Amino acid sequence: MTARVLVVDDIPANVKLLEAKLTAEYFDVSTATNGLEALEAAVSEKPDIILLDVMMPEMDGFEVCRRLKSQPETQHVPVIMVTALDQPTDRVTGLEAGADDFLTKPVDDIALMARVRSLVRLKLMTDELRLREATGSKLGLMDDAEALHRAGKGMGRVLVVEDRETSARRIADSLRESNRVTIESDAREALMRVNGEDFDLVVVSLSLERSDGLRFCSHLRSEERTRNTPILSIVENGDTARLVRALDMGVNDYLMRPVDRNELTARVRTQLKRKRYQDLLRENLQLSLEMAITDPLTGLYNRRYMESHLSTLVQRAADRGKPMSLLIMDIDFFKSVNDTHGHDVGDDVLREFGIRLQQNVRGIDLACRFGGEEFVVVMPDTDVAFAHNVAERLRKSIAATPFVVDGGEKSLDITASIGITSLHAPDESVDQLLKRADQALYRAKREGRNRVVSEAA
Ligand code: GH3
Ligand code: MG
């Protein structure tokens, strides 16, 4: 995993030290030495995570964090506060400013890496959801601000897995005001419970006396049902080894004993908010997007969605310096299918064509019905040579097996022609891309149909 990290500290030696540690782990590091610089870099560098020193002259880390978390361009970037003081009050101030985690100087290498990785992983997932969501709202389907607002509300369902009675009670008491809390003292029982009941957050002790907390976390992460449920773990002070394993496993956050009440409630709040935000995005995506952006006949994405999302994908490929390819396919002599067998049979052919298309592209490829009997597949991270292979496979899957149509009454030989292009320059427009693919398609038609043509290099 590689990611962009912004390191902010007013003391050059501290910046150098963190920069060296992160660069050694192949992170892409940029730096800032004061609050204002940090705010600028957070926008211009688009970091995936920010390591932020608390004590800085003029604007301190808390203020920087507050500002980062209050502007839309940067509010989703995780912030780790780096503080010289191991003070619970500092942590609470930081959490209230919106910080996602803390590291204490001198920064422990293992905790630093595990922490950065864990937050980056979460950020990448949220980015993906936000990207799709942004495409949805461009189409007028939902409202980001409304989703965020709703995410901050409502009772959370929290499962506490802890076998020390006083500790369990104290945690439950702290959370009860705004959550529905269930206590389970045995990890095996807890596992049964999460299979039958939905929880928004699981708080789990990693030092259970009678069962294995880490194993429980790993089960949660491997099961489809609980894979996205946030886990907040409670760790014995100094038990870095177990903490690191937990974070590597995908545990979202942690608290060291003795558990500070304010820190606990603040972290629970953060996790619940993020969970709800993600749930809302996912729900919105499934419900409204599917209806408005798919083609009713084939179930593929429609042209409107494709054009809208394609510009986002082009931008992203350009930003990351990754290749991207696109193909246009057009059924050969389709007019004669309609003319000979009628429009309904034509529709059957289109439906079956959609199914075969879907079966032959990857999940990250975007397949859509572009118009009548024209289809487009956008392939992120794919160069033109690889796209050619995909196209050949598609062409064969159409031509090799006749299309059974008209309720099984007829069987038709169908072929298609395919034109391919790829992104040449980062500033290319969607129109240019489509036009080149179309020219390649035109050549495929002219050269005899049932073939794949890549654009001339
Ligand atoms: P070529 O090999 O050059 O592509 O020839 P073609 O016959 O496939 O191309 P042409 O553009 O002449 O004809 C496309 C036909 O597709 C004409 C149109 O009536 C038909 N068509 C477009 N949309 C639909 C649809 O939703 N259902 C059906 N049944 N036919 C459609
Ligand atoms: Mg055609």
Strand adjacency order, main sheet:
2-1-3-4-5
CATH architecture of the largest domain: 2-Layer Sandwich
Instruction: Please provide the count of β strands.
Output: 17
Low-confidence stretches: none
Summary, kept brief:
This protein has 457 residues and is of the alpha/beta class. The protein has helices spanning 12-24, 35-44, 61-70, 88-96, 109-138, 144-151, 165-175, 187-196, 213-222, 240-249, 261-293, 303-320, 334-341, 343-359, 384-399, 430-446; strands at 4-8, 28-32, 49-53, 79-83, 101-104, 156-161, 179-184, 201-205, 231-235, 253-256, 324-331, 366-371, 374-380, 403-405, 410-412, 416-422, 452-454.
List key phrases describing it.
457 residues; alpha/beta; Rossmann fold; Alpha-Beta Plaits; 3 domains; five-stranded parallel sheet; 19% strand; elongated; binds 3'-deoxy-guanosine-5'-triphosphate; binds magnesium ion
